Amino acid sequence: MKAMLLSFFQMFRQMKKDAMLLAIAFVPVLVGALFRFGIPFAETQLINYLEVEQIISPYYGLLDLFLVMLTPSMYSFIVAMVVLEEADERLISYLAVTPLGKKGYLLSRFGMTGIISLFMSVVVVTFFHLASMNAAMLIVLVIVSTVQGICSALLIVAFSANKVEGMAVGKFTMLFTLGALAPFFISGKAQYLFSALPSYWLAKAVKESNYTFTGIGLLVTAVWILLLVKRFEKKL
């Protein structure tokens, strides 16, 4: 455990050297504030202008879900960039043969970052949510979203040779969150085309208030992680 903590703080020191990564860490708070204050204001203005009862408010639950997924997505990108930099400097091969080992290295990077992003997700959504959501559903969504974030980070490092490629793949991983749109905007069985994306099941859980779908989402994410960890270990 001590070796993992030291390895994690080493990653944190590397992150502090990159102003872009530090800025990304505050993105969820900035977006949360924009959602909380900007969207209701825009809703009011549009309702008055178009003379309708509601426009955006039926989708507040979906917007809250995107806010839940945002923090793990941002933090996963940060850790992926650090890991790719360590790969460029061949630090990973060195750390893997120390008492830390491959498993300890993966936990110190993805596991501990996941714990921090989980905590931050709860804080951000608690302060900036738009729709009412019971605490149990919020915790479950945050847990699955955190695991999905780890999956995104593994996808970046598994399919990128350097930080430049990592930024490109990082944009691709945002597709993971697009599955959340399907239950809200696609009717019938066609929406199941997105069932391989964990975010689809999270959106189903929010829309139908059914915890079963979060369990399916967690299972789907676990399959992704197992496949990506194997690929990353081969890369090491």
Automatic annotation (TrEMBL):
Annotated InterPro entries = ABC2_TM (IPR013525)
Give its localization. Membrane
**Does the record's keyword annotation contain Signal?**
no
The annotated topology with respect to the bilayer is: Multi-pass membrane protein
Major localization listed first in the record, in broad terms: membrane
Q: Where is the ABC-2 type transporter transmembrane domain?
A: 59-227
Q: Which segments does the entry list as coiled coil? A: none
Q: Which domain of life is it from?
A: Bacteria
The alphabetized UniProt keywords are: Membrane, Transmembrane, Transmembrane helix
Q: Where are the transmembrane segments?
A: 60-84, 105-130, 136-160, 172-191, 211-229
Q: What is this protein called?
A: ABC transporter permease
